[in-house]
Each structure stands twice: as C-alpha cells, then as structure tokens.
Design goal:
Number of strands: 24
Helix content: 25-40%
Bound molecules: beta-D-galactopyranose
Number of domains: 4
Largest sheet: 8 strands, parallel, barrel
Number of helices: 18
CATH architecture of the largest domain: Alpha-Beta Barrel
CATH topology of the largest domain: TIM Barrel
Shape: globular
Low-confidence stretches: none
Strand content: 15-25%
Strand order of the largest sheet: 1-2-3-4-5-6-7-8
CATH superfamily of the largest domain: Glycosidases
Structural class: alpha/beta
C-alpha cells in the first residue's frame, strides 16, 4: 500500500468558478485524496424529497479530472432544519433532560427510528448515484461519532430502545425478557429497586443519588451498540452499490462507544488528529508539560491513537483530518512550530498510516470555524502549513510504501473497562484511559514499539510482552489466553474485579489461574498523599491490598506488596507514578527478553517492517541511542 496525502474540501462553501483551480493546486501540492460532502445535507436535499445533485456531480467531476480521488462522506452528522421540524423528537437529550438544539451539528439521537430511516434514504440516494463513479474511491460514514459528547442520549426513543435491548440481553426460556434475571444480575433487591416489567425501566439519569452501577453499565453498553447499529445501516447500503472501501473518522479520546465493534463493519479506520487542540483537556499531562509542548503537542498522545486505530481498522488506517495550523476550539490555540505539520505527518506513517489528509483546504470566512487554519488562507494565498505538506509529498517519493509489522509488545485497551472505571472510580479523577496511556508512555520511553489490542483472546499470539492494565472485566477465556500466550503478562490493578454484570465475583479477584494473588480490599488516596515505594517512586490515587504467595517485586514504605510476580505473570496493585511505572516496564521487558532504551522526555522511536523512525518533539537537540537528534526532527533509518 502506498503512503498518500489528502485534504478536506467543501465545494458547497465556495463559488463553482474556483473549484477547478483548487483541484489543480491540490494535485500540484502532491495530494491524492480529497474528502467532501460530510456536512452538505441541506444542499443535497434542500427540502424533504427534493434532491439537488448537480453541484455534487460537478464537484466530483472537477476534482476527479485533476487526478484527485474522492472520499465521499455521508452527511448524517448534520441533519438540516427541516428534519427537526419533521421529527421534533429526534434530538438527543442530555443528562439533565434537555433536548440538544439545532444550530450546530450532531444533534440527533442514535435511537430515533424516524431519523434512522431518513439517514437510510439519503445514503441510498448517494450510494446509487456515486457507487460506480470512477472518482469516488472511498467513503466516510457520518462524521466523528461521539464528538461533542453525543453518544449518550436520554431521550424517549433511547428509553424504549434500551428496554428492547434489555429484553434481549436478559432473555428467558420463552425468548422474551426475564425481568427476574435482570433484577438478579443488577442486584436490585438493594434499596428495593426491583422491577416488575421491562416497560418500567428508565434511563439512569436524574436519580436522587447515584444510580445502580449495573444499570449504568448496561446503559453504556446499549448506547455503544446503538452507534454500531447506526453505522452498520449505512455500511450495508453503501456496500450494495460500491466496492470502494468505507471508513469512519474517529476522534481523540472519545471512549463512549466501542470503536472495535464499529470498526469491524468498516474497511478502514481513520481518526482526526489535532495535537495542539488535544493538549489542554484530553492529554493526561502536568501544566509544565503542557507548556513545554504547547506548540508541538504531547509526544505520546497522537502515537497512542495511531496504534489504537490501527487495531480498530484491523491494520488499515488513515488520518482523515490533520491539524495544519492553529485550531479554534481548545482553551488556547497557538500555532504549531515550523516543522510540526511535517513531523505529525511522518509520525502517522511511522505507525502504519496509509494516508494523511489535512483539515481543511481553505480557511472558512464564515460560521463556527473562522479562526481555524487551513492550508490556504480565506483569500486563497498559501497558509504556512502548505509548504510542509509539499515537503512531505516530496519526501514520500523516497519512502513510498507502508510496511506493516507486528510490534513486540501488546497493550490491551478495552472500552468496557473504561466505562466500568468511570461508573465506579472510587476516587475523584481516576481514569482507566489515563492508566493505559501512562503505561503506553512508559513503554515508549523505553523505546518499544507497541500494538494496541482489543480484549480478544484470539489476538494475543506472537507477542513477547502483553500489558493489560485495569481490565475490570476479564472473562475466563481471556485469562486462559493470557496465561497460555507464552508472553510475559502484566496485569492489575482491578483485573477481573467485577463480573459481566458489575458485581464483585467470589472467589475474590483477580482469580487468575497460576497467580497466587487475592485482592482483599482496596483504598483510594488523596492526590497529595501518594505512598512511596521502597525502591523509589510511589503508588498514587488507588491501591489494593493483596493476600499473596507470589514473589514481591515492589513494596511500599508502609510494608504493602505493590508489584508481585509468579511464573510469567506480573500483578500491579495500584496506580504507579511515572518513575515506578518506568521501572516496572523495564523489569517486565527484561523478563520478556526485550532490549530497552532510556529515551529523553521528547524523543520517541517506532519501527515499521523495514524502517526505524525517530522523532524529537523537543526544541533542543537530544542524544539517544548514541546519536544526536535535532529539534523537531524526523529521522528515518532503513533497517533491512
Ligand atoms: C473535527 C471535525 C471537523 C472540524 C474540525 C476542526 O472534529 O471533524 O469537521 O470541525 O474538528 O478542528
């Protein structure tokens, strides 16, 4: 597969007279792909049932004639105003019970049958018309499911659909819902919460104090399944008319739906990478770190998502939107340092991307994103990012092929575990995402390339080290596969701490065969009361007390075992700070026979099948592995 570049274009925003020139300039800049259409519903179907495809026919023809390949988006993230008049109850409802209003985007509820039928209609029209168009070389469904906090809706439509989902989940002998099975699974006897009928079950918002965690977890699973079903509806329609690959563009740190499940129906995963936009509110990083990387982005955050979405795409993934300059939506929006647009692009290729597309071609002079950079200014002159894009295009000539490879280390990321931690954190601010991400950081500081994996027993073969922090739900098959994998496996905290219904299992967790560890009780800690470890570093925020006969690798100064090991299994009984985490990763790597490095704070490396890439996110030259890496640099070495 070739490494390619592209951009996001909105022909409906610009006079037809400039389309051809735009297309020519895109091709001259070395771009292959142009994504269009994903917000254009009001111009494709200005009134219910009246379609205007002339402009879209022409736009596709003009772009195609310049040699560009079109990614056609379905416009379902932006239902027009007439849609809301037609289906007033299609709006998503927030946790306070307020409908989300028309006037921006993503205002629909995934459970509204009327809206889904409208989506099926518009997608059918598009697929029929462009399914065989020679210039339409890929599709994108909708836009950024879950962005702007839109996965979960507390609407009437969601309530009805949830009741139906529960009936299937708790189906009794007659194949209809068995309400006693649900009461038992949720433990509804506690506080007299027993239900007599599925029709009585409400959504878990606006309760007096916290709702039952089992109820919330099922609602989170249901909400995720609604996204999968919504996407599948579109995929099936497109596939009936087109053999072009279908993608969706996911976002950074959106975890409210199971991306692996959505990805299973698609050909390509893609994501929208805004390294500076993410830095302040999505990256677990101190204020000092944010300041140091304000114009470069976090050195691990993009890479983590590259590796995650490679798993979601089962090997095939793109950047659908790459930040090309300042964005408009973060608390502060600095310009990237010169060189970063190039560095981000190459980093994606180093993690196996097939394409990097820049958002957007030209800065918009109107509406919400006026202060968001494009590759062109609103007056069509070049913006600073475009020179770097050209440079990447030139450099790709010397390294044109994606060469995929299996990393030596696997890190499991499980959306279900993320929901379970969020529902029952036991400690303000405790986050599974952060636990996994900090583990990833430590692996990267050790110079290791990582594959992120779903919690799938069939995916574990061939790794030397498997790291699975915080897997609250660990079915027996996964426990067995981990033990049998032949890898060194690092698990805990909260491994198998709840059964599938969010109840504490007995025997007590983790109950992993071959590991003599029982978590007898847990405690959470104030941020200012970490407990030091004997060998340096600390356990912070959350820790478990173990009854164990395993070898103690690390203990606290107050005499508790924190990291223990037996056979090829290592159990970590808490959140470790960065020092302790790095030490444990080195111990585990050494046991797995992996060589590690001690990379500087700003330097990272990543291997593809044939190359090793080095990236320095810092503004100073840094030494690593016996070499000097200049500021903001990309270094590519051919390994074989
Ligand atoms: C993305 C979105 C784009 C645009 C962009 C601005 O989240 O998909 O449509 O809004 O952000 O950075």
């Amino acid at each position: 597969m070739k490494r390619t570049l592209g951009t996001c274009y909105y022909p409906e925003h610009w006079p037809r007279e400039i389309w051809a020139d735009d297309a020519r300039r895109m091709a001259e800049a070395g771009l292959t792909w142009v994504r269009i259409g994903e917000f254009a519903w009001s111009r494709i179907e200005p009134e219910p049932g009246r379609y205007d495809f002339d402009w879209l026919d022409e736009a596709i023809a003009v772009l195609g004639a310049a040699g560009l390949r079109v990614v056609l988006g379905t416009p379902t993230a932006t239902p027009p105003r007439w849609m809301v008049n037609r289906h007033p109850d299609m709006l998503a409802v927030d946790a306070e019970g307020r409908p989300r209003k028309f006037g921006s985007r993503r205002h629909y509820c995934f459970s509204h049958e009327g809206y889904k039928a409208e989506c099926a209609k518009i997608v059918t029209r598009l697929a029929e018309r462009y399914g065989q168009n020679p210039h339409v070389a890929a599709w994108q469904t909708d836009n950024e499911y879950g962005c702007h906090d839109t996965t979960i809706s507390y609407s009437d439509a969601a309530r009805k659909a949830f009741q139906g989902w529960l009936r299937v989940r708790y189906a009794g002998a007659s194949n209809d819902g068995d309400i006693h099975a649900l009461n038992e699974a949720w433990g509804n006897v506690f506080w007299s919460m027993d239900y007599g009928s599925f029709d009585d079950i409400d959504l878990p918002n606006l309760t007096v104090t916290e709702p039952n965690p089992s109820h919330v977890l099922d609602f989170r699973r249901f909400s995720s399944d609604q996204v999968t079903a919504f996407n599948r509806l579109q995929v099936e329609i497109i596939r009936a008319h087109s053999s072009a690959p279908i993608a969706h563009n996911y976002m950074g740190r959106v975890t409210d739906f199971d991306h692996y499940k959505v990805g299973a129906d698609l050909d390509i995963a893609s994501w929208d990478s805004y390294p500076l936009g993410f830095l302040e509110d999505r990256v677990p990083a101190s204020v000092e770190q944010q300041r140091a990387y304000a114009r470069q982005g976090d050195p691990d955050f993009q890479a983590f998502h590259h590796d995650l979405y490679r798993a979601v795409g089962r090997g095939r993934w793109w950047i659908m939107e790459q930040q090309p300059g300042p964005v408009n939506w973060a608390p502060h929006n600095p310009a990237p340092l010169t060189g970063m647009v190039r560095l981000w692009s190459w980093e994606a290729f180093a993690h196996g991307a097939e394409a990097v597309c820049y958002f957007r071609w030209r800065q918009a002079p109107m509406a919400q994103e006026q202060m968001h950079a494009g590759l062109l200014r609103p007056d069509s002159a070049e913006a600073p990012g475009l020179a770097e894009v050209r440079q990447v295009a030139d450099e790709l000539a010397a390294a044109p092929q994606v060469s995929p490879s299996r990393a030596p280390v696997a890190l499991i990321f499980d959306y279900d575990a993320e929901w379970a931690w969020a529902i029952q954190p036991h400690c303000a601010g405790l986050s599974y995402f952060e636990l996994v991400f900090e583990t990833y950081r430590a692996l990267r500081r050790a110079g290791l390339s990582v594959d992120v994996l779903p919690p799938d027993p069939a995916a574990l073969d061939g790794y030397k080290l498997i790291v699975a922090p915080g897997l609250v739900h660990m079915p027996d098959a996964l426990k067995a596969a981990l033990t049998a994998s032949g890898a060194i496996a690092l698990v805990g905290p909260r491994t198998a701490a709840r059964d599938g219904s969010m109840r504490i299992p007995v025997p007590l967790p983790p109950n992993v065969p071959g590991l003599d560890v029982t978590v007898t009780h847990v405690e959470s800690l104030r941020p200012d009361t970490p407990v030091s470890l004997e060998r340096g570093g600390a356990v912070r925020s959350y820790r478990e007390v173990l009854d164990t006969g395993a070898e103690v690798l690390e203990s606290t100064t107050d005499g508790q075992a924190v990291v223990v090991s037996q056979g090829r299994l290592i159990y970590v009984a808490g959140f470790l700070d960065r020092d302790a985490m790095r030490r444990i990763i080195k111990i585990a790597s050494a046991r797995a026979g992996l060589e590690t490095l001690d990379l500087p704070e700003s330097v990272r490396c990543r291997d593809t099948g044939e190359e090793r890439f080095w990236f320095n996110y810092g503004t100073h030259t840094e030494d690593a592995d016996g070499r000097a890496f200049p500021p903001l640099s990309v270094t590519r070495e051919v390994l074989r």
